Structure formats: C-alpha cells, structure tokens
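User: Could you write out the 3D structure of this protein bound to NDP? I've included everything you need below.
Assistant: Certainly. Input first, then the structure.
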Amino acid sequence: MSYVDEVIELVVKQNPNEPEFHQAVKEVLNSLRPVVEKNEEKFRRDALLERIVNPERQLKFRVPWVDDKGQVQVNTGYRVQFNSAIGPYKGGIRLHPSVNLGIIKFLGFEQIFKNSLTGLPIGGGKGGSDFDPKGKSDREIMAFCQSFMTELCKYIGADTDVPAGDIGTGAREIGYMFGQYKRIRGVFEGVLTGKGLSYGGSLARTEATGYGLLYMTQEMLKSNGIDIAGKTCAVSGSGNVAIYAIQKAQQLGAKPVTCSDSTGWVYDPEGIDVALLKEVKEVNRARLTEYAAKRPSAQYHDKATEGTNQWEVKVDIALPCATQNELNLDDAKKLVANGVIAVCEGANMPTTLEATEYFQNNKVFFVPGKAANAGGVATSALEMSQNSERLSWSFEEVDAKLKGIMVNIFHNLDDAAKEYGMAGNYVAGANIAGFKKVVDAMNAQGIV
Ligand code: NDP
C-alpha cells in the first residue's frame, strides 16, 4: 500500500466519527501523491504525513454562562493548535450549534495550507463552540464570550496563537473576547484579529475575505483569457464573506443575483442590493424574508418547504460563501447543465469531493477555499503586523496588499499545478504549494 493510502487509513481509524476531518485529509493527501511519491522513503521514515495530520495540541473545555432568566447554560469550547512550523497558530473561532471536534479539526487542518499559501508567517489553528448566538441578547453574548475567553486566555497570545472571527463570531464577539483577555492577562496586545478600529483593528479586514475571493476569481479568469465584467454570479450565504463578495463582484462589473441564509434564498434578477442586504443582516440581524419584503425585484424561496437552493439559477460563476458541504453532486450537475464556467469557494470546503470532481471532469475552473478565501487570514496577518508596529495603515494600503497577495497565491498554485503536470488543477496546485513550505520548515526544525 502506498504511504499516502496508509496514512489516510490511519486517520479514518484513529479519528472515528469525524467525517469532515476525513474529507479534508483525503482531499489534501490525494493531491499530494506526486510530491510524496517522488521521495516516499524519506517521507515515511520521518513520519511526515502522520505528523502533519496530528494536531500539535487540542483543547476542549467547559464554558458555563448565565442566561437572561438566571439559568446556567453549559457549552463546550475547542481550540485546535494544529501546526506552528511557519508561525504562531492562526485561525478563527466558530460559534454554531453544529460545532464539534471533527469540524474544528477539518478547519484547522485546511488552515495550515491556507496560511502557508499567503506567504506570511502564520501557522494553522482553529477554535469554536457549539454555542448558538442566534436569538441571544447582547448580555448573553457577552456572558458567553467572557466565559469562553476566561479559559482560552491561558493558551493564546500575540506570539503563540492569534484567533479571529468565523461563522457566528463577528466584530461584537471579538470585542467582548478581547476585553476579557486584557482584563485577565493585563496586557494590551494583538491577541485577536478582526478587532474594532478604535482598539487595534485593521481597515479592510471586514471586507477582506469577500474582496480577496473576487480578486482571486478575477485573476484566475484573466489568466484563462476571460473578463469577469458582465458575468452573472450565484452567491450563497449572507454573512461577512458573502456580503463583501457581492460588493466587490459588483465593483468589478459582475452581477450577483442570489444570496441565502440557513432558512431560505433570494433570487434577485436585477442584482443584489448590497446596502439593503447589509441593513438586514449587519444592522437588524434579521432573516432574508425582510430583504425580499423590501425589494420588489427579489423572489424569496423557503428551503424547507420548497427543497430548492440557489445553485439551480443559470449563472456564469458560483461563489459558495456559507458553510461546508453546501454544494453537492446534484447541485454541481445543475450548475454544469446551466453552463457555469467557474466555481470559487468563499467558504471552507463548501463543495463535496464528488461535486469537485464533477466540476473538474467537466472543465469548470474550480478554485478551492484554502486559496480563494485566504484573503481574510492574510489581512489578519497584516493586522498583526500593524499591531506589532503600533501603526495603522490606510484602507487603500491594506486593500492593495490584499490584492497583491491574492494575485500571488493564484500564480503560485497555477505554477505548482503545471510543475507536476496537472495544469488547471487548482486543487492540487493549492495543496502542493501550501504543503511544500510547511514541510521544508518541519524538516529544518527536526523531529518535533
Ligand atoms: P457568518 O456567520 O458571517 O455568515 C455565515 C452565513 O452562512 C450566514 O448567511 C448563515 O446563515 C449561513 N450558514 C451558516 N451555517 C449554515 C448552515 N449550516 N447551513 C446553511 N447556511 C449556513 O460567517 P462568515 O461569512 O464569516 O463565514 C462563511 C464561511 O466562510 C465559513 O465557511 C467560514 O469558515 C469561511 N471563512 C470566513 C472567513 C472570514 O474572514 N469571516 C475567512 C475564511 C473563510 P444563518 O445566518 O441563517 O445561519
């Protein structure tokens, strides 16, 4: 059996009931075969793959807090410090009822390669909790965030582990967590990114993941001789990534016509009204029914009663920006039948393995999340640089750096795919380019 197959088998055996983690490991290791097989004996002797699929450390802790009725609630908190070969652990905190150890491990594993691809000195990590922020009062959110950080603050720091936002963790939650860290540890340092502008945040961090996704999409299409202007897009999600992806797509002359949340989706043939979407989601924290009620051109579709989603709309580009495995083989077939030319992932692992293969087999350009959504963590690393320098850069400066990083990532992964005879396979290119730097650093640092 090949070394790659042995390690995949081991991961499945040693990590039962973690399907998302298995999926992420299989995707990465399968595409690394040409690199590993070139030097299989050395890789096996040094147990490099076993080391890379095992987190350096994983923390699981109790998070007790008191709700508005005086009832004590108990959630579970996680932080997986996956790999620090190239820098301090870096990765977001997800607050969603679906969170479990396997999901945090899949996200942390992906983060290693994503962070490496940015070219910046950041290792891979991820954290979160099964806490559901939906429907909670501001005081309840603060109580949870303070309790979560009371435990987490023992294990993080500006030079060791720097968490950020993710699903359910936005500016408000980062603020409460930062306040509690400072209160307990007594230091004002860049321990979290995604901070507010008045206390060390970076301009353009809010926009970075969505904007970066579009810079990457534009560059990838350009290198294949296609102009993004005039193309229609289906976007899923209506959170941080989706909103700024829609905004940047419009600025580049494309036309996003859908968005979604966990209960429904909107088709707006005149193009999504970003100002209205922001008001509904960022200000009112409401459902998309409110968007549809205020926008005559929008059609609202309820997911549960209709069993439909935004992937059935005829578009040129699909940008999944909500959550993992939200685009399956049936969705991929509909998109291909409708003539989609590109799929670029804003979310982490939103496309199933079967759907990814279907796109690749049907000559659809497919850029995986670890490359396409790396603009968020890249700008977080820029926030860390500004915090260390005690300086703030202008929006234009950060945005220009972000664009440069995304263009660079595309060419790195494109070149890596070509070097290994897989031109156009951006999944393999991203995994290989990200992996090589981490492995070089691990080799240089000995058996640790
Ligand atoms: P938000 O919490 O801001 O928004 C998430 C969006 O996805 C919401 O519209 C939400 O709908 C929807 N959603 C979440 N979970 C589900 C689910 N299980 N089923 C259907 N819809 C769901 O998160 P972000 O925009 O920050 O993150 C979106 C994705 O992008 C995630 O995969 C995240 O890991 C990834 N990402 C985020 C980065 C960032 O900088 N924020 C950086 C890189 C990747 P509802 O409100 O109804 O729950």
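DSSP finds 19 helices and twelve strands in the chain.
User: Perfect, thank you.
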